[in-house]
């Protein structure tokens, strides 16, 4: 749907460009950039990445701890299963099944939590980049800016479009320098 909207806007804009007279149509400009490259060039990106790596390590350590606990209890079960009365054997099997289910539930929940944390961690970066893009768009008079990462626009005409990758990186760096 997102690609369709990008293509629709591009088509309408290009159609208007083609139908307009030479003087009015020559003022329509477009910018393009790699959104991912812009995000990765931000100084805060490395901090966000490290925070997510640290959080992932904590989840992995907890998953390892509960897995080790399960393995220990399973080994105890295997060692004593021949000597346990039937009711104790069934009780231990049930405990192991419940523990396994809890471990699986934890892993699934931790994956969901990591996705939420990733979205929250990157949200300020996306907001900052989008604000910078809006500012550049207004300053340079672009009709819109195309994200070349989506592959919805595999080719851009350099006569009608301007590569703004460096301009975005410069604006982000200037903004970062001003904050420090």
Automatic annotation (TrEMBL):
Name the coiled-coil region(s).
49-109
Tell me a Gene Ontology molecular-function term this record carries: unfolded protein binding
Among InterPro entries, the record links this protein to: Chaperone_Skp, Skp_dom_sf
* An individual GO BP term: protein stabilization
Record's GO cellular component terms: cytosol
Q: Record's Pfam families?
A: OmpH
Signal sequence, renumbered to the chain: 1-18
Keywords of the record, alphabetical order, are: Coiled coil, Signal
Q: Which Gene3D superfamilies match?
A: Skp domain (3.30.910.20)
What family is it from? Belongs to the Skp family.
What is the protein's given name?
Answer: Periplasmic chaperone for outer membrane proteins Skp
List the source organism.
Xylanibacter ruminicola
């Amino acid at each position: 749907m997102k690609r369709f909207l990008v293509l629709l806007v591009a088509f309408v804009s290009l159609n208007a460009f083609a139908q307009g007279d030479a003087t009015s149509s020559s003022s329509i400009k477009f910018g393009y950039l790699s959104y991912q490259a812009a995000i990765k060039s931000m100084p805060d990106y490395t901090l966000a990445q490290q925070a997510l790596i640290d959080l992932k390590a904590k989840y992995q350590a907890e998953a390892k701890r509960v897995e080790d606990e399960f393995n220990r209890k399973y080994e105890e079960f295997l060692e004593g299963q021949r000597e346990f009365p039937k009711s104790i054997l069934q009780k231990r099997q049930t405990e192991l099944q419940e523990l396994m289910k809890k471990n699986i539930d934890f892993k699934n929940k931790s994956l969901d939590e990591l996705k939420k944390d990733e979205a929250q961690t990157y949200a300020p970066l996306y907001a900052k980049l989008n604000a910078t893009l809006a500012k550049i768009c207004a300053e340079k008079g672009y009709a819109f800016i195309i994200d070349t990462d989506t592959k919805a626009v595999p080719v851009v005409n350099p006569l009608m479009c301007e590569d703004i990758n460096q301009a975005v990186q410069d604006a982000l760096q200037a903004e970062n320098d001003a904050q420090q």
